[in-house]
What does this fold into?
Amino acid sequence: MLEPAPAWAHGVEASLRAVPAFEIEARYDSGEPMGSARVTVFAPTDPTTPWQEGQTDARGRFLLQPDPNLTGLWQVRIRQAGHGVLVNVPVGEEFPQTEGIPSASPPFGPLQRGVMAACVIWGCLGTALFFSRPRQSGYAAVESPPVSGSPGSGISGSQAGSSALE
It folds into this structure.
Protein backbone atom coordinates (compact mmCIF):
# COMPACT_ATOMS: atom_id res chain seq x y z
CA MET A 1 0.00 0.00 0.00
CA LEU A 2 1.25 3.45 -0.92
CA GLU A 3 1.32 6.08 1.74
CA PRO A 4 1.25 9.73 0.77
CA ALA A 5 4.50 11.56 1.34
CA PRO A 6 4.37 14.29 3.95
CA ALA A 7 3.90 17.69 2.41
CA TRP A 8 6.25 20.49 3.36
CA ALA A 9 4.53 23.74 2.83
CA HIS A 10 4.31 27.18 4.31
CA GLY A 11 1.14 28.78 5.42
CA VAL A 12 -0.02 31.81 3.51
CA GLU A 13 -1.72 34.88 4.83
CA ALA A 14 -3.24 37.76 2.99
CA SER A 15 -4.75 40.97 4.14
CA LEU A 16 -6.93 43.47 2.42
CA ARG A 17 -6.95 47.20 2.86
CA ALA A 18 -8.89 49.60 0.76
CA VAL A 19 -6.58 52.29 -0.62
CA PRO A 20 -7.19 54.62 -3.48
CA ALA A 21 -5.56 53.31 -6.61
CA PHE A 22 -5.54 54.46 -10.19
CA GLU A 23 -5.22 52.25 -13.22
CA ILE A 24 -3.44 54.02 -16.04
CA GLU A 25 -3.55 52.53 -19.50
CA ALA A 26 -1.09 53.75 -22.12
CA ARG A 27 -1.59 53.16 -25.84
CA TYR A 28 -0.14 54.50 -29.04
CA ASP A 29 -2.48 56.46 -31.25
CA SER A 30 -2.71 53.35 -33.44
CA GLY A 31 -4.35 51.53 -30.52
CA GLU A 32 -1.37 49.31 -29.79
CA PRO A 33 -0.69 49.08 -26.04
CA MET A 34 2.58 50.47 -24.70
CA GLY A 35 3.69 47.18 -23.14
CA SER A 36 6.72 47.22 -20.85
CA ALA A 37 6.97 51.00 -21.07
CA ARG A 38 9.01 52.84 -18.44
CA VAL A 39 6.87 54.61 -15.84
CA THR A 40 8.11 57.35 -13.53
CA VAL A 41 5.82 58.79 -10.85
CA PHE A 42 6.40 62.20 -9.28
CA ALA A 43 4.67 63.27 -6.06
CA PRO A 44 3.11 66.74 -5.89
CA THR A 45 5.51 67.76 -3.13
CA ASP A 46 8.65 67.09 -5.21
CA PRO A 47 8.15 67.16 -8.97
CA THR A 48 11.85 66.60 -9.69
CA THR A 49 12.60 63.44 -7.70
CA PRO A 50 10.86 60.22 -8.80
CA TRP A 51 8.55 58.88 -6.11
CA GLN A 52 8.16 55.53 -7.85
CA GLU A 53 9.54 53.88 -10.97
CA GLY A 54 8.23 50.84 -12.76
CA GLN A 55 6.88 49.66 -16.05
CA THR A 56 3.57 48.88 -17.65
CA ASP A 57 2.38 45.34 -18.17
CA ALA A 58 1.98 43.74 -21.59
CA ARG A 59 -1.37 45.49 -22.05
CA GLY A 60 0.06 48.91 -21.27
CA ARG A 61 -1.47 49.16 -17.80
CA PHE A 62 0.08 50.54 -14.64
CA LEU A 63 -1.47 50.60 -11.20
CA LEU A 64 -0.68 53.70 -9.17
CA GLN A 65 -1.28 53.78 -5.44
CA PRO A 66 -0.30 57.26 -4.36
CA ASP A 67 0.18 58.26 -0.76
CA PRO A 68 -3.24 59.72 0.21
CA ASN A 69 -1.53 62.14 2.60
CA LEU A 70 0.21 63.86 -0.32
CA THR A 71 -2.64 65.68 -1.99
CA GLY A 72 -2.34 67.50 -5.26
CA LEU A 73 -1.49 66.58 -8.83
CA TRP A 74 0.67 63.51 -9.18
CA GLN A 75 2.53 63.28 -12.44
CA VAL A 76 3.02 59.95 -14.17
CA ARG A 77 5.44 59.93 -17.09
CA ILE A 78 5.23 56.94 -19.43
CA ARG A 79 7.95 56.52 -22.06
CA GLN A 80 8.94 53.91 -24.58
CA ALA A 81 11.27 54.14 -27.57
CA GLY A 82 11.13 57.91 -27.87
CA HIS A 83 7.37 58.11 -27.37
CA GLY A 84 5.79 59.28 -24.18
CA VAL A 85 2.91 60.82 -22.37
CA LEU A 86 2.47 62.73 -19.12
CA VAL A 87 -0.61 61.95 -17.03
CA ASN A 88 -1.73 64.19 -14.17
CA VAL A 89 -3.49 62.26 -11.43
CA PRO A 90 -5.41 64.40 -8.94
CA VAL A 91 -5.36 63.12 -5.35
CA GLY A 92 -7.28 64.69 -2.53
CA GLU A 93 -10.69 66.01 -1.63
CA GLU A 94 -10.27 69.13 -3.71
CA PHE A 95 -10.32 66.89 -6.77
CA PRO A 96 -13.71 65.18 -6.58
CA GLN A 97 -13.63 63.70 -10.06
CA THR A 98 -10.75 61.29 -10.33
CA GLU A 99 -12.03 58.81 -12.85
CA GLY A 100 -11.79 58.87 -16.56
CA ILE A 101 -9.46 61.79 -16.99
CA PRO A 102 -7.97 61.32 -20.41
CA SER A 103 -4.46 62.47 -21.08
CA ALA A 104 -2.61 62.13 -24.29
CA SER A 105 0.23 63.69 -26.08
CA PRO A 106 -1.03 66.05 -28.75
CA PRO A 107 -1.30 64.30 -32.10
CA PHE A 108 0.47 65.73 -35.08
CA GLY A 109 -1.75 67.58 -37.51
CA PRO A 110 -1.62 67.18 -41.28
CA LEU A 111 0.48 70.33 -41.66
CA GLN A 112 3.01 69.15 -39.07
CA ARG A 113 3.24 65.74 -40.70
CA GLY A 114 3.75 67.35 -44.11
CA VAL A 115 6.50 69.64 -42.81
CA MET A 116 8.22 66.72 -41.08
CA ALA A 117 8.05 64.60 -44.25
CA ALA A 118 9.43 67.47 -46.34
CA CYS A 119 12.29 67.96 -43.87
CA VAL A 120 13.17 64.26 -43.97
CA ILE A 121 13.09 64.21 -47.77
CA TRP A 122 15.15 67.41 -47.96
CA GLY A 123 17.70 65.98 -45.52
CA CYS A 124 18.01 62.73 -47.46
CA LEU A 125 18.30 64.56 -50.78
CA GLY A 126 20.92 66.95 -49.42
CA THR A 127 22.95 64.13 -47.96
CA ALA A 128 22.80 62.17 -51.22
CA LEU A 129 23.87 65.22 -53.24
CA PHE A 130 26.71 65.95 -50.83
CA PHE A 131 28.16 62.48 -51.14
CA SER A 132 27.56 62.18 -54.90
CA ARG A 133 29.54 65.29 -55.87
CA PRO A 134 32.89 64.71 -57.58
CA ARG A 135 35.74 64.56 -55.16
CA GLN A 136 38.60 66.99 -55.51
CA SER A 137 41.95 65.75 -54.50
CA GLY A 138 42.56 67.67 -51.29
CA TYR A 139 45.72 69.69 -51.47
CA ALA A 140 47.84 69.54 -54.60
CA ALA A 141 51.49 68.85 -54.09
CA VAL A 142 53.38 72.03 -54.80
CA GLU A 143 57.00 71.79 -55.51
CA SER A 144 58.85 74.63 -53.98
CA PRO A 145 62.21 75.75 -55.23
CA PRO A 146 65.15 75.42 -52.92
CA VAL A 147 65.58 78.24 -50.44
CA SER A 148 68.60 80.27 -51.34
CA GLY A 149 68.61 82.91 -48.64
CA SER A 150 71.04 82.94 -45.78
CA PRO A 151 69.76 83.43 -42.24
CA GLY A 152 71.23 86.93 -41.91
CA SER A 153 70.22 88.21 -45.38
CA GLY A 154 66.63 89.21 -44.39
CA ILE A 155 65.09 87.14 -47.16
CA SER A 156 62.61 84.57 -46.00
CA GLY A 157 62.18 81.22 -47.68
CA SER A 158 58.98 82.21 -49.50
CA GLN A 159 60.48 85.46 -50.73
CA ALA A 160 63.56 83.63 -51.90
CA GLY A 161 61.40 81.10 -53.70
CA SER A 162 59.29 83.78 -55.39
CA SER A 163 62.34 85.61 -56.57
CA ALA A 164 63.72 82.41 -58.00
CA LEU A 165 60.56 81.99 -60.10
CA GLU A 166 60.83 85.44 -61.67
